[in-house]
Amino acid sequence: MNVDHVTRIARWAEAHPLAPAHVDCATAVMLKILDGKCKMKATEKFVMALLYGAVKQRPGLRLDASCHALIDEAGAHLDDAMRLRIYERRVLAETMISRPVMKAFKAMLREQGLFDGLLPEASEEGEEEYA
Questions:
Q1: Within a domain: residue 10?
Q2: Range 40-75 burial, b when 16+ CB lie within 10 A, else e
Q3: What is the spatial distance between Cα 87 and Cα 93, in angstroms, rounded to a whole number?
Q4: In total, how many domains does the chain have?
């Protein structure tokens, strides 16, 4: 993990405070990355994982500390059984976050420059519903 990227994303997160609903969105994306269902490019997943790490201690609107505890547990031990637990939690999280909220979150990240300079190959083509 490049320290420069970690620092850059942490600074971005400080300069662009996320609303609680957006913290939920970052959490849902992290769950999707962990369960292996995320169709983002590898560099986008990397940036989103760093963003999640920078905001996970902030309050969410609907998702609570149990989601973060599960994500932490998965980081230490990600086997098939854990992927199933993550998948179930992710599906539940996605039912709590409306599609317009998630789309607005992803648009805001791009508009506010989260991916600038890190992902020259990133495009909006093929972007899926929840990332």
A1: yes
A2: beeebbbbbbbbbbbbbeeebebbeeebbebbeebe
A3: 10
A4: 1
Query: What are the tens digits of pLDDT across the range 76-115?
Result: 899 999 999 999 999 999 999 999 999 999 999 999 999 8
Q: Which residues of 6-23 are buried (b: 16+ CB within 10 A; e: fewer)?
A: eebbeebbeeeebeebbb
Read off the pTM. Answer: 0.86
How far does CA 54 lie from the centroid of its chain? 10
Express as a percent the part of the chain with pLDDT over 70.
87
Residue 117 lies in a domain: no
Domain assignment of residue 48, given as a range: 3-111
